[in-house]
Design brief:
Layout lengths: L1 H11 L11 H11 L6 H10 L1 H7 L25 H13 L8 E7 L7 E10 L3 H11 L7 E2 L9 E5 L3 E6 L5 E6 L12 E2 L3 E3 L2 E3 L2 E2 L17 H14 L10 E5 L2 E10 L2 E11 L5 E7 L1 E11 L2 H5 L13 H24 L3 H4 L16 E18 L5 E11 L4 E5 L31
Parallel strand pairs: 1-16
Antiparallel strand pairs: 2-15, 2-17, 3-4, 4-5, 5-6, 6-14, 7-10, 8-9, 11-12, 12-13, 13-14, 16-17, 17-18
Length: about 450
């Protein structure tokens, strides 16, 4: 019976009957609701574009809840700054180029032969892991130190810090950002044979008695004893044991070792997906062969999703905006310094071949400072090579993030680290201009909150 009723209903159904048009808002919401995967920014724009005609007809306004929200807000200053490589290059130019008038430069960045297609990359949040006081206890135990962590006088609720201190050591942890801990120990014998500061005789004058003190110490010369310093292999073994005890992954193939007659060190970068990131653990030895310092982190790295990135060519336009800067692992800077050292050696060899350093320096007079400020000199900088990397950026609460970035190399010999995600993924702070000063001007900065 039920089967016959169903058959009769199907026969009566008219598939050509006219239907009421469905409200486009319902269609839009249904389409968005059915998407199980996170929507990228490009996908969102494409969806809005496809609904544009219908929206004009029925006046659809997508609710704010459906608008893509920034993942985090960048810190206004300090944490995301221009590369130290750039700063090093500029200070070198200022020091070595006597004939350059110390006015100012404006760089005109020009992309040359870079990719023009965008891509995508993963963003990671760096979260502190563990209890800060317990981490201090663990570090103290490794170095055989007794003591209980105490909250520092300068500690705040937003930026707490703790330490264990003694006459010849200090262990501290700053429980903000990536939550770094630091150990240092100094040898009291370094001050052996040092004469105490001499108090000079009181000086009478104008009814007042003043006394002065010569604060300089006269100490016996300390000579290096390289036999006390562990060998490179011994340093690697000690570093591996120390870091493993503290939960830091250690790979001898990635560790960097340095040693001379006065001490040595081992550094170990943190690796994510096979690439070094701007988190590194260190251990160093003094001239007495004892560990003099160490540092590390206790973090977990959490993926926050995949996001669209702009092209390297488009990233060049961001170089002039300090808000887009990040920092990369120290290995990138070491490569830069190594390349710079080779180039400087070549210049010195050329100078020597042409008659030595004396011939390179001329007797031309130093430039005379003009009375009025000059116009900035425009310097074209051709950005001709790019690399991709994860760069560190910090939000307004001091938390660390790892974001896709380009390392943009130029023909002037430095590089810039530029965040590559599309606009809207992260919220930028308000911009402000930094202008050079003359004798009568002061730099005007925006007030807090403006």
């Amino acid at each position: 019976m039920e089967d016959n009723e169903l058959r009769n209903l199907l026969k009566k159904a008219d598939t050509k009957a006219s239907l009421e048009p469905m409200n486009e808002t319902v269609v839009a919401k249904a389409a968005m609701t059915q998407r199980k995967a996170p929507m990228s920014y490009r996908g969102f724009r494409a969806l809005v574009g496809s609904l544009g005609a219908a929206a004009l007809v029925v006046g659809i306004t997508l609710p704010s809840a459906l608008q893509p929200q920034p993942l985090f807000e960048l810190a206004s200053s300090g944490s995301s700054g221009r590369d130290s490589a750039m700063a090093t290059q500029e200070s070198s130019v200022a020091a070595d180029s006597a004939m350059i008038w110390p006015g100012w430069f404006e760089y005109n960045y020009i992309a040359q032969g870079l990719d023009t297609e965008g891509s995508s990359g993963e963003i990671f949040e760096v979260r502190k892991k563990g209890n800060p006081t317990q981490i201090l206890r663990n570090v103290a135990a490794v170095f055989g130190i007794q003591g209980e962590p105490k909250q520092d006088d300068w500690s705040t609720a937003e930026y707490p810090s703790y330490s264990i201190s003694g006459e010849d050591f200090s262990i501290s942890i700053y429980w903000s950002g990536p939550g770094g801990w630091y150990f240092s120990r100094w040898n009291q014998d370094y001050f052996r044979g040092c004469a105490e500061p001499v108090m000079e005789e009181p000086v009478e004058g104008d009814g007042e008695t003043d006394s002065t003190m010569d604060e300089s110490y006269v100490c016996e010369e300390i000579k290096p004893e390289p036999g006390l310093i562990p060998s490179e292999q011994e340093m690697l073994s000690q570093a591996e044991s120390l870091f493993s005890t503290l939960g830091v992954d250690f790979d001898r193939a990635l560790a960097r070792v340095w040693r001379d007659d006065w001490g040595g060190s081992v550094s170990m970068p943190m690796i994510l997906d096979g690439n070094a990131i701007p988190l590194e653990s260190y251990i160093g030895w003094g001239s007495d062969g004892e560990v003099s310092y160490a540092s590390g982190y206790s973090v977990e790295i959490v993926s926050r999703g995949n996001f669209d990135t702009i092209s390297a060519t488009d990233a060049v336009e961001r170089i002039s905006d300090w808000r887009w800067y990040g920092s990369v692992a120290s290995s990138y800077y070491e490569q830069y310094y190594a390349t710079t050292a080779v180039a400087e050696s070549a210049i010195e060899r050329d100078a020597a071949a042409s008659g030595g350093e004396d011939s390179a320096s001329s007797d031309e007079p130093m430039p005379v400072e003009p009375e009025q400020p000059t116009e900035p000199e425009i310097v074209d900088v051709f950005v001709n090579r790019s690399e991709t990397a994860l760069a560190a950026a910090y939000d307004g609460s001091g938390n660390m993030w790892l974001v896709p970035a380009y390392i943009l190399h130029n023909d002037q010999g430095w590089f810039d680290v530029i965040i590559a995600v599309e606009e809207g993924v992260i919220q930028l702070p308000e911009p402000y201009d930094i202008m050079p000063l003359n004798d009568t001007e002061e730099m005007i900065m925006p007030e807090e909150g403006n």
